[in-house]
Amino acid sequence: AGKSTAGGQILFLSGQVDDRTIQKYEKEAKDKSRESWYMAYIMDTNEEERAKGKTVEVGRAHFETETTRFTILDAPGHKSYVPNMISGASQADIGVLVISARKGEFETGYERGGQTREHVLLAKTLGVSKLVVVINKMDESTVGWSKERYDEIEGKMVPFLKSSGYNVKKDVHFLPISGLLGTNMKTRMDKSNCSWWSGPCLFEVLDCIQVPLRDPKGPVRMPIIDKYKDMGTVVMGKIESGTISEGDNMLVMPNKANVKVISVHCDEDRVRSAAPGENVRVKLSGIEEDDITAGFVLSSIKNPVSAISEFRAQLQILELLDNAIFTAGYKAVLHIHSVVEECEIVELIEEIDLKRRKEGDIKKKKSKRKPLFVKNGAVVVCRVQVNNLICIENFSEFPQLGRFTLRTEGITSNRTQISHDFECVCLSKLL
C-alpha cells in the first residue's frame, strides 16, 4: 500500500534525510529494477525487506513538526507478519492507515479476511483510538486524483470503521496523498494537482490530534520492547506512566530485579528525565542483558506492576477460526503491550447481552448467564491462564497494560484470525 514509502517521505520532508542519501537509495533501487521503491529504503533497512518490497520488522524513526515530536513505528502489513504489526501498534497513540487507491489493491485488502480489515480491528483493540486514513497512490495514472475513487474508498471504509468501534466524526481523518511524490503531506495540495480537495495536509492533521493524557507523577510503567549491551544493559520502550530520571532505583518485573538508572536517551539526545509518552533508551546497572526478555516492565519499587499467571478478562469474540466455538480449554496466543505468550481459557464465567445491558436489565441480572461455550460476536467474562508470569494491570487504571488481543493460527492454511479483548481485570497478584 506504500506505508514505508510514505514513512520515508515524511522523514525526507521533515529534514531527517538529506539529498545525498536519497540519491544513494535511488541508485540502489534502480540497480534492482525497483525505481519506485527508493523512498521505502529509508524505513526498510534490511535486505529481505528491500528484496521483497515488504516490511518485516517494525521500523522506528523520529521526526518533528513545528509543535510536536513524533516517533514513526512502521508496522508490517503482510499477513505473515501480523505479530510484528501488533508489537508496533501496541506502542502507538495514533494510527496512520495507508490504503492504496490503485484498482484491485484496496479491494484485496478490504475483502473478508483481508489485511486492511484485520489491521483496523487490531489497532482498535490495542488502544489506537485516533486514526488517520490516507488514500495513497492517488497520483497513479489509472487513478489520476479521481474524486470518484476517493469517495468510493471512503464510502466503504466509514461503515466498517464504525462497526469496529471508531467514532468516525471525532476520531478518524481521511485525506488523499501521494507517498512517492510527497503530495499533500507537509504542505497543502496544489489546486492544479487536485481541484476538489480543500482540506488539510498530513502534517497538519497529525499536529491537531489530541493524544491520551498520562500521569507523569504516577508509578513508573515502561514495557520493554528490546534490550542490548552497550557498556552496560540498555532497555528500550515507551513510558506509559510516571517519570524516569537518572539515578532512580527501580524494579524490572516480573523477575523483581533491583536496578539503577544510569542514563536516559530520547532519540539520540541524553536527557536527565523522560515523561510519559516518550520512547526512550534507558541504561541500567544491576542486571545482565540475558536476564531481560521483551515483555518485562521497568517499574517503580514502591508501587510495582502486577505479575500474575491467571486473570479475569472481558472479551469480545470477533472472529473464530473456521467458525469454531469458544469454550473452556480454548488455546490461543496472547498479545499484551510487548508480551507474546501462549494462554488457555480455563473458565467461562458469564456471557453479557449488550442489548439488554443498554436497556437497563443488568440490574435484574437478566443480561448474565454462565455459558458452556460462545460463538462469534459474543461478549464473555472468562478466566485466562498463562504458563509464565506476565506483567499486566487493571484496565481501569492502566489501559495500555490491561488491553490485549488473542489470536489463533490455522496450522495448515496459515490464515490468521482474531478473537479479542475489551478489558483485563486481575484475578490474582503474584508479586
UniProtKB/TrEMBL annotation:
Keywords carried by this UniProt record: GTP-binding, Methylation, Nucleotide-binding
Tr-type G domain residues: 1-217
Recorded GO MF terms: GTP binding; GTPase activity
UniProt-listed InterPro entries: EFTu-like_2 (IPR004161), G_TR_CS (IPR031157), GTP-eEF1A_C (IPR054696), P-loop_NTPase (IPR027417), T_Tr_GTP-bd_dom (IPR000795), TRAFAC_GTPase_members (IPR050100), Transl_B-barrel_sf (IPR009000), Transl_elong_EF1A/Init_IF2_C (IPR009001)
Pfam families: GTP-eEF1A_C, GTP_EFTU, GTP_EFTU_D2
Function noted in UniProt: This protein promotes the GTP-dependent binding of aminoacyl-tRNA to the A-site of ribosomes during protein biosynthesis.
Family from the record: Belongs to the TRAFAC class translation factor GTPase superfamily. Classic translation factor GTPase family. EF-Tu/EF-1A subfamily.
Entry protein name: Tr-type G domain-containing protein
